[in-house]
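Why should sequence recovery work at all? Because a backbone constrains its sequence more than one might expect. Tight turns favour small or flexible residues, buried strands favour hydrophobic ones, and helices have their own preferences. The token representation captures these environments compactly. In the example below, the structure is given first.
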């Protein structure tokens, strides 16, 4: 082969190589986002987290000029949907909108050696909203607050009658709260896990379970109508439900938990992509319509920085993880 021929072959090979890698280079240079996005809500439709996802999806999608699809993937106290996002490509096109249960469920899975993901598998993006947590009962239960519910349960225990408390899944906030309440008071209750807040509330409304809890937005209308009775708020401050004291005020400080809902991306998602998404979320949070809709369901819209969400999770896990390990909270 002559030198000229070799040069032609090498040039041809170089051109072919450039053609092979060209699509990757073009993709890398594409402006984000250039296609549809998917936000995973790790609970069934109808709960607070699902509501927030749909409100923000409309505004953020409009701001970014792309469609945002909400995908409800319930089960495992939110861990199944979370794991799906942890394994997704770190390109910003798949996000997770989780809540305070992220702290308890993931801590439980890690403590039992059954975790398919850890907190390090996610990059915080923004707190969507702070949503207080409340504990409720069916109106047939003769209790006006949590202290009276404990007294009622003790009487039921003496009469060998069952008392059931529901949660949004094994390892969830209400699972942790119920087990903590049992430990601190000596009462006996049986845990009934559900795949999310919507089915939990339906069982509470039917009276088949006596106690349950979740973010206030899911049940506010039922409490105001009298179909459910709020016994306490787990959050540090009182809620929009008049006259309902906090767990700390009622003598149950170990039940206190701060309620939040936040967006996460897979770890290693480019900082520039996260900044773009967070910017639109912050803009959506300032929208008067969004503020109004969330205020109506007892939520406080946020649109925080990634650093603020990261600190909330870190601080909460530091409190929750030892408690989860002590109570041996197991996610099925």
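From this structural description, the recovered sequence reads:
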């Amino acid at each position: 082969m002559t030198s000229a021929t070799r040069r032609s072959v090498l040039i041809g090979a170089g051109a072919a190589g450039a053609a092979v890698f060209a699509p990757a280079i073009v993709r890398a240079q594409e402006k984000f986002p250039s296609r549809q996005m998917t936000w995973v809500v790790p609970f069934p439709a109808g709960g607070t987290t699902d509501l927030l996802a749909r409100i923000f999806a409309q505004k953020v999608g409009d701001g970014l000029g792309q469609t945002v699809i909400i995908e409800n993937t319930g089960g495992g106290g939110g861990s199944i949907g979370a794991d799906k996002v942890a394994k997704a490509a770190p390109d910003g096109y798949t996000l997770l909108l989780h809540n305070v249960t992220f702290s308890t469920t993931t801590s439980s899975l890690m403590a039992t050696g059954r975790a398919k993901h850890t907190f390090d598998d996610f990059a915080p993006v923004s707190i969507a909203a702070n949503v207080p947590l409340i504990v409720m009962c069916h109106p047939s239960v003769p209790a006006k607050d949590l202290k009276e519910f404990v007294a009622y349960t003790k009487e039921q225990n003496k009469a060998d009658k069952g008392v059931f408390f529901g949660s949004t899944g094994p390892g969830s906030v209400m699972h942790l709260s119920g087990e903590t309440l049992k430990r601190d008071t000596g009462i006996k209750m049986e845990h009934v896990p559900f795949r999310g807040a919507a089915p939990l509330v339906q069982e509470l409304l039917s009276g088949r379970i006596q106690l349950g809890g979740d973010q206030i937005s899911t049940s506010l209308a039922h409490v105001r109508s009298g179909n459910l009775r709020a016994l306490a708020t787990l959050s540090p401050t009182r809620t929009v439900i008049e006259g309902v004291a906090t767990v700390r005020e009622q003598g149950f400080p170990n039940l206190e938990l701060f309620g939040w809902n936040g967006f996460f991306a897979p770890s290693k998602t480019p900082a520039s992509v996260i900044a773009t998404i967070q910017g639109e979320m912050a803009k959506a949070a300032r929208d008067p319509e969004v503020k109004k809709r969330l205020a109506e369901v007892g939520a406080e819209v946020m649109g925080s920085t990634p650093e603020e969400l990261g600190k909330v999770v870190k601080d909460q896990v530091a409190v929750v993880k030892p408690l989860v390990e002590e109570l041996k909270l197991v996610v099925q």
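A few observations help interpret the result. Residues 1-28 have pLDDT under 50 and may be disordered.
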